[in-house]
């Protein structure tokens, strides 16, 4: 007889694997995931139930008893790719805009990262269309040379290219022309070009590029916008994205009311292109045009 008594044999319990202790990097990664999940939940609660798929314009709002939409807002999606040399602050700029935070520990972007944020705006130029909802898809690219081959495919279907340089790094400023040329090769004159001088919070003695130089280059290249920002303090970050969102909705209206394709000639990368809309955001006190730095 079998030693087993009546009934089914109980399955053997699997031994629990000891859990690995999380280091500081793991904890930071988990915190970032939690922040992204919370941001996605907040976005979903604002936009209503169900995922928003596809591009172009979508209508959002509550349904009345007859199935029609009331309190309708227009949702337009735009893909924005961030370009620039390594360590200029592309990721920090996105993080400040998305979560209003700044990480003092530098970590280089590996490959491509993607985040999305929705902005709510008033009506267009006429004000007759009601509120507009703009979803900005932010694509963060790595500045290292080894990831350079990945970037053209992300530029190819983008609506906006934001080229970032470090005001304390002359080399990153001189690379703006090259990044602009990359966009021109993939998108022609269709993409909106924006130039951003980051780290404007640094002391004037560390500044290697004046605000006037940045604005002049932006105008020469025919870029649509020029801003100076600080990811650390948040200076200029929200105004940058708000101005960009307003510009995109105006272009959508002029292109036939919001096809979200970013067409137009605001991305010319040669002299004599469309004049740039430059925003005077000022510089740190004591930094005058042409002032030399210690770098």
From TrEMBL:
The record's keywords, sorted A to Z, are: GTP-binding, Nucleotide-binding
Q: Which GO terms describe its cellular component?
A: endomembrane system
UniProt-listed SUPFAM superfamilies: P-loop containing nucleoside triphosphate hydrolases (SSF52540)
Region of interest called Disordered, as start-end residue ranges on this chain: 1-69
Comp. bias (Basic and acidic residues) = 18-34
Name the membrane topology term.
Answer: Lipid-anchor
The family database entries (CDD domains) matched by this protein are listed as: Rab6
**In the record, what terms sit under GO molecular function?**
GTP binding; GTPase activity
Where does it localize? Endomembrane system
Which Pfam families does this chain map to?
Ras, TMA7
Among PANTHER family, the record links this protein to:
RAS-RELATED PROTEIN RAB
Q: What is this protein called?
A: GTP-binding protein YPT6
Q: What is the lineage of its organism?
A: Eukaryota, Fungi, Dikarya, Ascomycota, Saccharomycotina
């Amino acid at each position: 007889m079998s030693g087993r008594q009546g009934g089914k044999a109980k399955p053997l319990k699997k031994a629990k694997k000891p859990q690995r202790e999380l280091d500081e990097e793991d904890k930071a990664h988990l915190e970032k995931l939690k922040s992204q999940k919370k941001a996605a939940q907040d976005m979903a609660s604002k936009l209503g139930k169900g995922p928003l798929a596809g591009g172009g314009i979508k209508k959002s709002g509550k349904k009345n008893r007859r199935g029609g939409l009331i309190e309708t807002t227009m949702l337009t999606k735009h893909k924005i790719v961030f370009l620039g040399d390594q360590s200029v602050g592309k990721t920090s700029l996105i993080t400040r805009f998305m979560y209003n935070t700044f990480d003092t520990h530098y970590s280089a972007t590996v490959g491509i990262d993607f985040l999305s944020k929705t902005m709510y705006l008033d009506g267009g130029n006429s004000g007759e269309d009601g509120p507009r909802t703009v979803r900005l898809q932010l694509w963060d690219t790595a500045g290292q040379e080894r990831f350079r081959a990945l970037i053209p495919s992300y530029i190819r279907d983008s609506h906006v290219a934001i080229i970032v340089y470090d005001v304390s790094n002359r080399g990153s400023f001189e690379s703006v022309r090259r990044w602009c040329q990359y966009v021109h090769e993939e998108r022609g004159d269709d993409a909106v070009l924006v130039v951003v001088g980051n780290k404007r919070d640094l002391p004037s003695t560390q500044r290697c590029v004046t605000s006037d130089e940045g604005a002049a280059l932006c105008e020469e290249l025919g870029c649509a916008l020029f801003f100076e920002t600080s990811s650390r303090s948040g200076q200029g970050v929200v105004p940058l994205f708000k101005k960009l969102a307003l510009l995109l909705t105006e272009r959508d209206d002029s292109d036939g009311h919001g096809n979200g394709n970013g067409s137009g000639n605001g991305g010319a990368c040669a002299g004599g292109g469309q004049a740039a809309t430059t925003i005077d955001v000022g510089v740190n006190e004591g930094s005058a045009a042409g002032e030399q730095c210690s770098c």
